[in-house]
Amino acid sequence: MASIPFAVWVWWLNGQVVERFEGQKWQVPSEVYSAPIILSSGAPWKKQDLESLLEETGYRFGRNSQKVGWAARSQTKVSAHLRSYVDHLGFHESERRIFSFENGRLVIQALNGDEVDEARIEPQRIGYLYGGNTESRQILTYKEIPQPLIDILVAVEDRDFYHHWGISLTGIARAVIVNFTHGARRQGGSTLTQQLVKNMYLSSERTYTRKLTEVVMSLLLEYHYSKEAIITAYMNEVYLAQLGSSALHGFAAASQHFFGRPLNELNIDEFALLVGMVKGPSLYNPERSPNRAKARRNTVLAVLKEQGRLSDKDYQSLIKRPIRLASKKKERSIYGDYLDLVAMQLSRDFDETTLATKNLRIYTGVDIRAQRAASAAMQRQVSALERRDAKLKGLQGAMVVTDRVTGQVRAIVGSSGQYYTGFNRALGAVRPIGSLVKPPLYMSALATGRYTWWSKIEDKRLRFKVGDQIWEPENYDRKTHGVVHLYEAMAKSYNLATVSLAEQIGFDRVGDTLRQLGVKRSFTMHPAMALGALELSPFEVSRLYQPIASQGKSSELGVVLAVMDQNDRMMKRFDQQNDVPFTDALLAVTLDGMTKTPKIGTARAAQAAFPDLNFAAKTGTTNQQKDSWFVGITGDYSSTVWLGDDNNVPLSITGSSGAQKVWIDFTKNVNPRSLPTSLPSGAARYDVLDDEFEIAASRCSDKITLAFILGTEPKDSTSCFWPF
C-alpha cells in the first residue's frame, strides 16, 4: 500500500518538473541598450580616443584582428573585427575595418582598401529596469554556448554527464561514505542534472528528504528532456555571484560582468575561471579573492590536463596568465539618470511587473561617449568651482544632451556627484531660465517680418507697472548701451534692449512663441518673463531649443527607440512627432544669430577653447545669480547645462563662469563638429554694412555677415568705393 502514496508523489513531482521547465524558467529584468556607436569617415577623431573606446566596449588588442571582438594597432592605424548584433533595425553583420587618422580626421577602410562611409560598434547594455532586487542573467540557446565551455564544465563537474540518467551511483556512494565518516552531511554526489534541479526547483536545505526529492526529479528531468536541453538550462541557471541585491546567474552574464565581453570571445583560462566558481561562487569570486580564484582556476586547468584535454605545454602557459577583469564603471552611477527617463517613458505602455521579469530588450538613443563625457565634465568642473570658492560647497548641476538633428536624448546627468543620487535634477529641478529665454524672444521678432538681426533697438532704462508694483529691469553691468543691433543685444545679453523689443512686438506674442516651441508648463506672460522669470527644468529647456537646433527637423525629444522581446520580436516602436509651427528658414536664421554669442558675446570663453569651431550658444544667469545656465549647439549635439544650489541660494557664478565651463569640458571630449554652413530654402547670408542697411561688397571693411529670411534682406548694395 505504501507504493500508492509514493506513486502519487512521483506523479506530482513529474508535473512540477514539466510545468517549470516548459514554462517561463527565469524571471529576468528588461535590459536597456545604448544606441550603436557610429564611426563616420571624415569625423574628427584621435587615435587614442578610438583605442580607448574599443577597450571600453570589450574589444581586446592583440597582434591581429582576425577574430571577432579583437583589435590591433600600429603607430598610425587601428584595425578591428567589429561584432555582429541585432537591434530594432535588424541584423547587422560583423565586419573587419581599418581606421586611419589623416589631419585629425577618421578614414575607414575595408580590408581591400576601399573607403567606407561608416562603421558601427554594437549597442552596449547600460543597465536593467526594475532589476535592483531581481536577477542579472542573459539567456543563451544551445547553439550560442561555446563548445569548450561545455567540455570544461562536464570534465570538472560531471564527467559521466552523457552516460547517466540524472544521478551518479558512484558519486552518491562516495558522498555517503564521507558523510558517515564525519558524522554529518559534508559532501554531495550531485550530477549537473541534480545541481540544475536544486537550483530550479528546490531550497538549499540539507535533508535526506530533500535529497530523495532531488534524485527523483533528476530522473524525471532526464526522462523528459535531452542532454542538450539540460546543459542549456544549466548554463543559464547556475548561480555565480551576488552583486549587491542582485544575483548573477548564468555564464553569459558572468562573462559580461567579469570580463566585459561576450561568452564566445573568452579564452580557455577564462572559461576555467568561471567553471571553477561553480563550486563556491563567494569563495572563488575573482573580484574579492583573486589569489583564491586563480588557484581554483589552475585546479580546473589541471583536471583538463589529467584528462588529456590540455597539453603540458598549454597547461604551463595558461596557469601563468594573470586574471584580467573588466574595469567596473558603476553602471547605475553613470546611466541611472537616463534609466529614470526610460522608465518614465515606458510606464505609459508597460506595467512594472512586465519590465521587471520578461527580459525585454529596450533600445534607446543614449550615446555612451556623450554620457561618460557629460558625467565626467559635471563632476570635474563642479569640484573645481567648489575648490575655488568654499561658499559653492554643495553646488549641484544637471545636463541634457540631444542629437542636434533627430532630437534623440544622447546623455542625461542629474547631479554633480559621482554616484547616482535618486533625485534627477535634469527632470526635477524647475528653475527660472534667465537669459535662455532670449533666442525664442528674438525669433518672435524675426517672425513678424519687421525685424532682422541688423535691425536696431535702443538699450535704455524702462519702467513697467505690474499690479501695484513698479518693475525697473537692469543690465548685468548696470549700464545702458544706446542704440544696438539685435544680434549685438542678444549676443551680449542686454536686458534693457530685450525688454524693449518684447514690448514692441507684444509680450503675448513672446508667450505664444514659447508655447509653440514646446513649453507645456502653464505660465502667465508678464514683462519679467522677457528676462527669464519662466521656470523650466533642464529637460524642458532642451525641448524648447530642439526646433531651433535642428532647424525644424525635430521638435520632441526621443528616449526609447523600440522594445523587443527576448526572441527579437518587435513589441513597440516609438516614433517621434515633429510638429514645428515655424518655417525652417526662420529657425535657421535664429540659430545663425546665436553663433554671434561665442564670437562677440557672453560665450567668448567657449570660442577661445574651440577657435575653429562654428557653434551656437547662449548663457543664462538669474536674479541674484541663483542659477547658472548654458546652451551650446554644435554640428552633433544640442546641450543644456544648469548649475545651482538645491536650497536656491545666491551663487558667485554666472552662466559664463559656471555652466559654460561644464560645456567646454564636455565638448573637448566628444570630437565636436561645426554647424553646417548651408541654410534651408528661404534663408540666405549677406555681408551688411554696420551703419547702413546695405549689402556690402568684399572690399568693405565695416561689415557683418548675417542670415536673413528671404524678403527681409537689404535691397540696396554698396561698393565702398569713394573717388578722390
Automatic annotation (TrEMBL):
What's the protein here called?
Answer: Penicillin-binding protein 1B
Function comment? Cell wall formation. Synthesis of cross-linked peptidoglycan from the lipid intermediates. The enzyme has a penicillin-insensitive transglycosylase N-terminal domain (formation of linear glycan strands) and a penicillin-sensitive transpeptidase C-terminal domain (cross-linking of the peptide subunits).
Q: Which reaction does it catalyse?
A: [GlcNAc-(1->4)-Mur2Ac(oyl-L-Ala-gamma-D-Glu-L-Lys-D-Ala-D-Ala)](n)-di-trans,octa-cis-undecaprenyl diphosphate + beta-D-GlcNAc-(1->4)-Mur2Ac(oyl-L-Ala-gamma-D-Glu-L-Lys-D-Ala-D-Ala)-di-trans,octa-cis-undecaprenyl diphosphate = [GlcNAc-(1->4)-Mur2Ac(oyl-L-Ala-gamma-D-Glu-L-Lys-D-Ala-D-Ala)](n+1)-di-trans,octa-cis-undecaprenyl diphosphate + di-trans,octa-cis-undecaprenyl diphosphate + H(+); Preferential cleavage: (Ac)2-L-Lys-D-Ala-|-D-Ala. Also transpeptidation of peptidyl-alanyl moieties that are N-acyl substituents of D-alanine
Q: Where is the Glycosyl transferase family domain?
A: 133-303
Q: Which GO terms describe its biological process?
A: cell wall organization; peptidoglycan biosynthetic process; proteolysis; regulation of cell shape; response to antibiotic
Q: Which organism is it from?
A: Marinomonas alcarazii
Q: Name one GO molecular function term.
A: serine-type D-Ala-D-Ala carboxypeptidase activity
Keywords (alphabetical) are:
Antibiotic resistance, Carboxypeptidase, Cell membrane, Cell shape, Cell wall biogenesis/degradation, Glycosyltransferase, Hydrolase, Membrane, Multifunctional enzyme, Peptidoglycan synthesis, Protease, Transferase
Source taxon at top rank: Bacteria
The answer to whether the entry has keyword Hydrolase is yes
GO CC annotations? outer membrane-bounded periplasmic space; peptidoglycan-based cell wall; plasma membrane
Give the family from UniProt.
In the C-terminal section; belongs to the transpeptidase family.
Q: What are the subcellular locations of this protein? A: Cell membrane
Domain Bifunctional transglycosylase second stretches:
39-119
Q: Active site annotated at which positions?
A: E157 (proton donor), S435 (acyl-ester intermediate)
Pathway field = Cell wall biogenesis; peptidoglycan biosynthesis
Do you know which SUPFAM superfamilies this protein is assigned to? beta-lactamase/transpeptidase-like (SSF56601), Lysozyme-like (SSF53955)
Q: Where is the Penicillin-binding protein transpeptidase domain?
A: 397-635
Q: What is its main location?
A: membrane
